[in-house]
User: What shape does this take?
Amino acid sequence: MPNLKDLKIRIDSVKSTQKITSAMKMVAAAKLRKAQMSAESARPYAERMEAMVGALAKSFDGVDGAPELLAGNGKDEKHLIVLVSSDRGLCGGFNANIGRFARNKIAELQAAGKSVKVLCLGRKGRDQVRRDFGDAVLDTLEDLTKNGAQYDDADAIALRIRTMFEEGEIDVCTVVYNKFVSAITQEVTPLQVIPFAVADTTEEATEEGQDAELKALYEYEPSEEDILEELLPRNLSVQIFRAMLESFASEQGARMAAMDNATRNAGDMIDNLTLTYNRARQAAITNELIEIISGAEAL
Amino acid sequence: MSDTVQFELVSPAKLLLSEEVEMVVVPGGEGDFGVLPGHTPMLTTVRPGIIDIYENDKVAKSIFVVGGFAEVSEERCAVLAEEAIAVEELNRDDAEARLQKANDALTAAENDVAKKAAERELLAAEAMVAACGA
Assistant: This one.
């Protein structure tokens, strides 16, 4: 029979844990709202940018001399994976999922004889990858999402990736991040940024058929090549920025769901413990009564 | 056709401005250009400089932008800018500090990519200082 005092201590401890998890849940919910808003307000820019790149890329389709950021440098040997994760834990499967995906991908690429490097945005992603592929981790950038994702950070990361690309250190760059589907669902998504995979427009092709015709009528100033040359580096920044925003929103969503679960579990645990506690208390009282009564009878 | 154009100014973080205007003058990569309703569809780069929004033949609003792109169609003009600051909020000291920083970055740049980025930043900072003086 568990001791009454021990039970009491356990109940109190679970209660205080529950208080913490429910507070964390509320904080995550507030942050989620903010993150969602900033993700939404970033959308117009990214969409316009995508439309421009799409329109320009079409005119380079199959033509030699397209910028390397778009067409690639013709090689497929050295891969860079940008792993977007969070700095803090306690957010359910958020980091575990993306870590697993990244590890599988690295193993796959290495099995195919390619060299792989990993740039981690967020401490937790690094922890996931370091165990198996410590050598592959190039660097880890932390505290990027302290105040929500910042465009300047994304720009700096993009610059770094571009430098590596131009110096021939990497051939292909893929960003792996948690895509925000809803507050409780995230989807691990790989996004190839170098060479830039122009969004497959099959689903939009029908409705944008007229749009495409319109686009062909644009005048370009300066030339299409020059604009594309300017556009691609920025597009890279924007893609990374978007991945960071999505990942941040996903993180908050995942944490909210995880903390909601934890709060509920703590509630169940408290109920169970209270039941046991009351039973133990009742048993003690009954015991005492029996002793008194049998003592009285003996007289 | 309406006698206004839909002008949109977008930064990576958000949609900054979206309104009907009579005319807007944008600092294009190849020189300033004004957009009136019925402009030829065009895609162009934007250099660091000032966007003027006209109303009743007068400048109603001036916004300093740091580089980007403009997409013009008959009834719309969308500017994608990396940064945008209303001219009256510009601060000469900040601008000069930025110029100084850009200069340092250019001297410190070790490779082509960093150098190019620093040069671009330098141009932006120079334009910012010039915009303060205006």
